[in-house]
Amino acid sequence: MKWYSYFLLLSLSIIALSSCDNEIEDGSENPPIDSSLLVRPDTINKDSLNQSTGSVKKWNFSAADEKVLSMPEKLNMGSSYKTIEKMLPDFKGVRAENRSAELADKGFVEGMSETDLFGQKAKCVFHFKNDSLYSYDVSVPIMDIKEAEKKYNEIKAFYNDKYGEAQTPKIEEDNYTSTTSYWKTPKGYVVLANDLSNAEIQFGIHNSLPK
Length: 211
Description:
By secondary structure, the chain is an alpha+beta fold.
């Protein structure tokens, strides 16, 4: 009986080995690789890889916040205050710039509006000369210094994505209360500032670079 069992095991082993040899000979175990599916390393577009990895957003704004931050694209220098009134229903009319009668006599007036930004009320100030918009600024209070710096860097990244790399104006060496970046665009100078003395972030567009 033992002899019969040994014989049966030996027969099964021979059949299994024979089956493996047949698979190797006919290539069924490792079929040939289609060379058209291979990608040579020197054919990879490295630029496209860099673009895809470099497109990660460095800001986290709501759609409403992005709309406010995109105002430089929507307002044209030279617009009248009637045009601004149509765009902004809560525009509060105009008054002498800096409440100065002398400036008003020279045609300088300003108008104000409010908007929501980062969950807070932000003040918008529009500057006109002879009924022609020459600059406007939006300011939002941020009391925490670290949070203000974070928002400043996020807005800077947002504008870098739109207008290219930011530039930094020359300032006095002892001016530690404000950090400013600007971008020269076809519509004017987009300016962003972190004003520590007033605990607020300011941004807007100007006909010329503010001094």
